[in-house]
Amino acid sequence: MDAIDDRASTGLLAPLKNSTFRSIFLASQLSSLGWLMQTVALSWLMATVSTSDVMVALVQASSTLPAFFLAIFVGAIADNYSRRAVMIVGRSLMMAASAMLTILMAFGITDPWMILAFSFLDGCGIALSDPAWRASLGDMLERRHLPAAVTLLNVGFNTVRSVGPALGGIIVAVFGPLVTFALTTLGFVAPITALWRNKWKVQGSSLPREALMTAIYDGLRFTAISSEIKSTIVRGTLFGFASTSTLALLPLVARDILQAGPVSYGILMGGFGAGALLAGLINPRLRRMLTQEWLVVLACMSSTVCAISLALTTTLTPATVALAFGGAGWVTGWSGLGTNVQLASPRWVVGRTISIYSAFTYGGIAGGSWVWGLVAEHYSLTAALAASAGAALLVAALGLKLPISNRSESELEPLGSFSAPPVALDLKPRSGPILVTTEYSIPEENAEPFLDLMRERRRVQSRVGARQWTLTRDVQDSSRWVETFRTPTWIDFHRLHHRLSAADKLLDDEFMKLSQYTRPPRTTILLERSTSAARKSAPVPYLSQK
């Protein structure tokens, strides 16, 4: 009975028990429905006003490029400002872009570059709101519900693909793009209202907000140090590059291979969404049966089957079935990769890691859209689909070198408590740079275990903010080792210690064991001062020992 209850509590629909998440999630589905209707209208409008296959493919690329260029900035904003306010601003920008597009269309302005420009502006709104929304999941929900929540976001978005594109195709065919753009604008009212009416508790910090450039640096450093996140980013980028061909080239498949119109295009997108829905429903069970690496391989195989089938078929029904495989692979791949980033990131940096991950994966999608469009234009549509299928197989094979871990929960959450040492100087938050040295007395027989611990120590300290970390050994006293690192300011020194997790703190106990028959480690904190001639008096260093 307990096992049944546990499966129910971590099932796909478990996050919907949270009223705040449920309200914002459902409102977001309504706006996503409108946005997908608008995407159909924009893609079909581009196919009718432009004869360039590349311009058609760039409609997909233009909405994803902002996430590539702006991601690290919006991630730092999401981690340092109210994520709720950031989401409201992003959604408002999307509504404004749709409203302006509606007005211009009402005046008969349908230039191809205008279409790309407003698709790009929509992408800017997505780039701003999406990282804040995904980073907020850990604030709203229990950590055990995060995999289900990430899957639910992907399932929810892809489910409306089974309705939005078909509905958008019908509206475009019957009423024209103008009505579609107007309905999309109204659809953005729902998430803005839900965000305005709902507030959720966010764990506060006693420390002041980070400077934007420092926050960006910390986010980039953490991502560069985390092998889990790096592997996920590489595989996600290449997966997006390979598998986006079916979405980017689908208007051409409908127009050139199937000789069909916007309604058939909507039906094809509906098949993609139906496959995504089915995969999402069985995703919790798949996660219990297969490792995350095998789920990524399965997603790549599904994308391969979809692309090859589209290249070979000439009728609507087989193409729709093929797209169901593509949708299943799409949601399986992105749900697993997104969950991996969430669980490998502590709350203080999750907005930035999600943004960096999104930047590269959206960049892969945008690059793939452009490349497959070029292949279709200069060779053939069939060649582009076949080449993308081969690329998806290579992404699956890359797991031999860059496997995706099967992390089930994060061990990186910070303790959030730190008792600062007493100070003899009047230090301000921006006083610095701060130099920290720790001396160890290690017997010769413990030198190798000590170096192993120090490798982990360097990774841990650098991940949470230590800069210029070094380890030195006294040439006159072989048992004396000195660890050294810097932080830019006194407040950054505090921030580093606030970010350490319980597992990180256990390293101190290991060092104590290695030096238990000698003197214990001793830490000294110094405030660096310039000795340039411009100074009128020599500085006095701050020394604190513990």
TrEMBL record:
UniProt-annotated location(s): Cell membrane
Membrane spanning stretches: 24-45, 57-78, 85-107, 170-196, 233-253, 265-282, 294-313, 319-337, 349-372, 378-400
Span of domain Major facilitator superfamily (MFS) profile: 20-407
Signal peptide from the UniProt entry: none
CDD domains, A to Z: MFS_MefA_like (cd06173)
GO molecular function: transmembrane transporter activity
Topology within the bilayer: Multi-pass membrane protein
Name the UniProt record assigns to this protein: MFS transporter
Assigned keywords, A-Z: Cell membrane, Membrane, Plasmid, Transmembrane, Transmembrane helix, Transport
PANTHER family: INTEGRAL MEMBRANE EFFLUX PROTEIN-RELATED, STAPHYLOFERRIN A TRANSPORTER
Source superkingdom: Bacteria
Organism encoding this protein: Rhizobium jaguaris
Keyword DNA damage recorded: no
Keyword Transmembrane helix: yes
SUPFAM superfamilies: MFS general substrate transporter (SSF103473)
CC terms in the record's Gene Ontology section: plasma membrane
